[in-house]
Design brief:
alpha+beta, Membrane-bound Lytic Murein Transglycosylase D, Chain A, 8 helices, 28% helix
């Protein structure tokens, strides 16, 4: 990976009131890269990359130079930037709405409401608003008189939200997991159920043995998240799954591992 850092700094000498720093980091696209894999490497979202580079589609080319950080302008105390960063969260592989809400003191329903989500399905690279966490803390402070019983109820509610963030579990087992891409040898890029993975590289899809997990099932995979059982494979038999990754480097990083699999209702 080749990176170049360009930094420009200008100081207001007359007033001494503030300093402005403008920085931009560039990334040279390698063969096999996708916007999604680049966004994961640089902890930004796909939409930010497209905006910073004036891209109208997800199509990129080897040796293309991409800006992978926004231009930042901070006041002397930097408080506005800190507030902005604390109000958004970039989804990482393995995250669930429940785990994100727990980190920011919010419930599953609040996260869904703030982001207009109609389901619990999220994808790596998505940016979620978690700005309501301040309101949640305030509400908590104003209700200091809550009894021990209330605390117990809150605990039960959290467990219930974790379950609802994944859905009702129909079956749970340990499986051997590997990863594949839409460009592997002999791959057409279209799944057994008709999903075009090359056109939609951010989809969460796994290949399964239909005798173990019916095609079309919603499935939660440890370290991958919630996906659709939409594909099959010649070597995918019994308690084995193959998780789809948008790039070869992501598939290699995932490797081969034993994971918990939950088939959801």
């Amino acid at each position: 990976m080749k990176k170049q850092m360009i930094t420009l700094a200008t100081t207001a000498a007359l007033t001494g009131a503030f300093a402005t720093t403008v920085s931009a980091e560039e990334y040279n696209v390698n063969s096999g890269d996708t916007l999604w894999s680049i966004s994961q490497q640089n902890n930004v979202s796909v939409s930010q990359l497209k905006s910073w580079n004036n891209l109208s589609s997800n199509l990129i080319f080897p040796n293309q130079s991409l800006t992978v950080s926004g231009q930042a302008s901070a006041s002397d105390n930097g408080s506005s930037n800190q507030a902005s960063e604390s109000n958004t969260y970039t989804v990482k592989s393995g995250d669930t709405i429940y785990s994100i809400g727990k980190k920011h003191g919010a419930s599953v329903s609040q996260i869904k409401s703030w982001n207009n989500l109609s389901s619990n399905l999220i994808h790596p690279g998505d940016q979620l608003s978690v700005g309501g966490s301040t309101a949640v803390k305030s509400e908590s402070s104003s209700n200091n008189t809550a009894s021990e019983e209330s605390n117990t109820t809150a605990s039960s509610s959290a467990s219930s939200e974790e379950s609802s963030s994944q859905g009702d579990v129909v079956k749970q087992f340990t499986a051997e997991a590997t990863a594949y891409t839409a460009y592997c040898a002999g791959c057409s890029g279209t799944t057994a159920t008709g999903q075009d993975l090359r056109a939609n590289p951010n989809q969460k899809v796994i290949a399964v043995d239909p005798n173990v997990i019916p095609l079309g099932s919603k499935v939660w995979v440890e370290g991958y998240g919630t996906a659709i059982a939409g594909d099959v494979g010649g070597a995918i038999k019994g308690n084995r799954i193959d998780v789809f990754m948008p790039s070869n480097s992501d598939a290699l990083d995932f490797g081969r591992r034993n994971v918990t699999v939950k088939v959801l209702n």
